[in-house]
Amino acid sequence: IGNRTFTMIKPDAVENGHIGAILEKITAAGFKIVAMKYTQLSKRDAETFYAVHNERPFFGELVEFMTRGPIVAAILEKDNAVEDFRALIGATNPADAAEGTIRKLFASNVAENAVHGSDSDENAKIEGDFHFSGREVF
Ligand code: CMP
């Protein structure tokens, strides 16, 4: 049993047909999917989830983007999950992301960057609990 991180496949990657390829990269890298759902964030969901960014100039754009279509939300388990998943997805801006990373392969730009990955164990727990009840985690 490893520890956990939380991810979302964002609306841009869903629209562009990348759900399957992204899940393949995630499982091939050794992450076990312990919870997963296809869902759409409401405006209030997105404002709550991204509350830490609410003073940023891009906050409105971020909420608009994250609510414009469905997402895949998942909790992933692996040793060193948070750090290893951030390495797998690459830098926030795909222009700065390493070759072979999920954002390098599938993201459009810094705003529409294909996937989310928690930045700490503490946030992974908060974000997973935001999306999933205990009965939905296996
Ligand atoms: P993520 O790091 O998952 O969470 C915060 C999100 O804000 C980030 O992904 C991007 O989707 C978005 N974001 C970060 N920086 C910018 C920016 N400069 N302009 C627009 N959106 C951004």
TrEMBL record:
It is an enzyme of class 2 (transferase). Its main location: cytoplasm. The active site is at residue 116. The gene is ndk. Transmembrane segments: none annotated. Keywords: ATP-binding, Cytoplasm, Kinase, Magnesium, Metal-binding, Nucleotide metabolism, Nucleotide-binding, Phosphoprotein, Transferase. Its EC number is 2.7.4.6. This is Nucleoside diphosphate kinase. HAMAP family: NDP_kinase. One of its GO terms (molecular function) is nucleoside diphosphate kinase activity. It is found in: Cytoplasm. Homotetramer. Residues 2-138 form the Nucleoside diphosphate kinase-like domain.
